[in-house]
Write a structure and sequence with these properties.
Length: 422
């Protein structure tokens, strides 16, 4: 049986036939008179039943194929969207800037204005210099071809940091250009959280007349409290937010102001992020929830640092350097000697070296690949480079002279050098 509606969480077309494909609703639910969320979104909201099968690309089952197919379709659709006049709210995750930057975006957006939202600012160390960060970000965007940015906003959706002025800026541009808004970004940058936050307190600021207009009612019938309650009931329900990649499938239309719409679009998948190799439990460990505790190590030749069992950095050649690790506090970081690295992994993966959560899961990561870098230090006061492991975090290198290092990470995971963020 096919239902006419769409899931109010992810936007997938609802159906009651196949629990293994997107948009499934159990038939017994049909007797209940409410708007539906598909079973998948239901599980994601009620975290107890989140299954590993939600992991994109992990297995070749039909769910994953469907998701990948709809994401491909979405990329094509995005090109159509951008061919008309609209405002692109483009979100990146500051903690995984390189992993969350959609490289094709600058070529898709055309002449439409782009508001860049840099989310999860709460995860960076407190002493970070926002002015320097701004310059760093502009350089990074320009190097990737994103040169026409209308405005950059540093926000934290979960901590409600700078959300008010961001919202005001978007509204101003919507009114000025009389255009709809598309929220675009890679999976997991926080798009759904951002939109929920934007919409959450709108009712408080509405006048009685605005509420009457919105609800299509005549004056004098209801009190302001009743109108606000009616508005909240009618308002689009909360979108599904989740720490699992790829949970919003079709663009979801949301009323924004009286005559405009905002669209939450499916997260664009970046296959080089390490999260795509991990189980739901491991993803929770790798994605930081709190401000990261930064740890520094002084390494000399023959030493290495393990990032759980997911990757390691080996010091090959050079005078001792400082390596400052910016990763989730739940990724266990340990120094050791390079010669004993494999032995240490065999005994401690799943325990002292987590994630992965077990030796079996470690083996499932597949082959590991080594990548070597040579860098020139710029002194003890300033890092010369960040070594980024896509989706996991980065290591800032500080020291004098020439340094040769090797990073060992699962095959397919992006490992690269960049200008230092801090
Ligand atoms: P989407 O896939 O882009 O829609 O991302 P979601 O909104 O589902 O968020 C992905 C994960 O990032 C969730 O676990 C959120 O709680 C988390 N998240 C979103 N915004 C922030 C933020 O500002 N700070 C932090 N620390 N986490 C955030």
């Amino acid at each position: 049986q096919e239902l006419s509606g769409k899931c109010v969480g992810c936007g997938a077309k609802l159906q009651t036939d196949n629990p293994n494909t997107i948009g499934y609703v159990p038939p017994f639910k049909l007797t209940e008179n409410h708007r539906f969320v598909c079973q998948r979104c239901y599980y994601m909201v009620h975290r107890t039943l989140v299954e590993d099968q939600l992991k994109i690309g992990a297995t070749e089952d039909s769910t994953n194929k469907d998701i990948l197919h709809s994401l491909k379709l979405f990329e094509q659709r995005l090109e159509n969207i951008c061919s008309k006049r609209c405002i692109i709210v483009y979100m990146v995750d500051i903690f995984d800037f390189d992993g969350s930057f959609v490289s094709r975006l600058p070529f898709i957006t055309g002449n439409n204005p782009v508001i860049l939202i840099v989310n999860k600012i709460d995860l960076l160390p407190k002493d970070i210099n926002i002015g320097r960060l701004y310059v760093w970000l502009k350089n990074q965007c320009e190097a990737r071809g994103l040169t026409k940015i209308h405005r950059i906003h540093f926000v934290s959706c979960t901590k409600d940091y700078r959300m008010g002025e961001t919202k005001a800026d978007i509204i101003r541009l919507v009114q000025y250009l009389n255009a709809d808004v598309y929220v675009v970004g890679c999976t997991n940058v926080g798009k759904s959280t951002f939109i929920n936050r934007l919409l959450s307190n709108t009712v408080e600021k509405k006048t009685g007349q605005e509420l009457l207009n919105y609800l299509g009612l005549k004056q004098g019938q209801f009190s302001l409290t009743e109108l606000k309650r009616a508005f909240k009931d009618k308002k689009d329900p909360q979108l599904t937010t989740s720490c699992f990649p790829g949970t919003t499938l079709n663009p979801i239309r949301i009323h924004f102001g009286r005559s405009h719409s905002m669209y939450d679009t499916p997260g664009i998948i970046q296959p080089h992020q390490i999260t795509h190799l991990l189980t739901s439990e491991e993803i929770k460990m790798v994605l930081p929830k709190k401000r990261v505790r930064v740890v520094s190590f002084r390494l000399m030749e023959g030493k290495c640092i393990h990032f759980g069992g997911l990757a390691r950095l080996e010091m090959l050649q050079g005078k001792p350097f400082f390596f400052t690790v910016f990763m989730s506090n739940e990724v266990k970081v340990h120094p050791s000697t390079t010669a004993k690295a494999e032995e240490l992994l065999e005994t401690h993966v799943g325990g002292l070296l987590q994630p992965p959560i077990s030796w079996r899961k470690y083996k499932e990561l597949g082959n590991f690949k080594a990548k070597e870098f040579e860098v020139d230090g710029v002194g003890w006061l300033q890092s010369s480079h960040d070594i980024v492991i896509s989706g996991l975090g980065w290591v800032a290198v500080t020291g004098c002279g020439r340094l040769k290092v090797r990073v060992v990470a699962p095959k397919g995971v992006g490992v690269f050098l960049r200008e230092p963020i801090a």
